[in-house]
Amino acid sequence: MSNDQRISLTAPIGRRRFLTAVGAVSAALAAPALVRAQAREVKVGYILPVTGPLAFEAQLALNGLQLAVDEINGAGGIKSLGGAKITLLPGDTQNKVELGNSEAARLIDQNVTALIGPFSSLVAFSVRQVTEKNKTPFLLLATVADNVLEGGLRYCFRMQPNARAMATLTVGNMIEMAKNAGTPIKRVAIMHEDGNFGTTMGNHVEAFAGKMGYELVQRVPYNLRSPDFTPELSKVKASRPDLLVISGYYGDSKIIAETAAKLRIGVNALVGLANAAYSNPKFITENRELTDQLFDGNYWHNPQSARARAVFEAYQKRFNSTMSNHGVQGYQVMFVLKDALERAASTDREKVRDAIAKTNLTDHILTQDAIHFDEAGESVNATPALLQVQGGKPVVVGPARFLEAKPVFPVAKWKG
Amino acid sequence: MTWLFLQAVVSGLLLGGVYGLVASGLSLIFGVLRIINFAHGAVMMLGMYASYWLFVLLGVDPYLSILVTGPLFFGIGVLIQRIVIEPNRDAAEHNQLLLTLGVALFFENLALVLWQGDFRTVRVWYSGASFLVADVLVEVPRLVAAGGAVLIALGLWGFLRTTDVGKAIRALSEEPEGARLVGVNVARIRGVAFGIGSACVAVAGALVTPFFYVAPDVGESFNIMAFVVVVLGGMGNFLGALMGGFIVGLAESLGAAFLPGSLKQLVVFGLFVVVLLLRPEGLFGTRRGR
Question: Which of B23, B28, B55, B207 is the most exposed place for a label (fewest CB within 10 A)?
Answer without folding.
Answer: B55
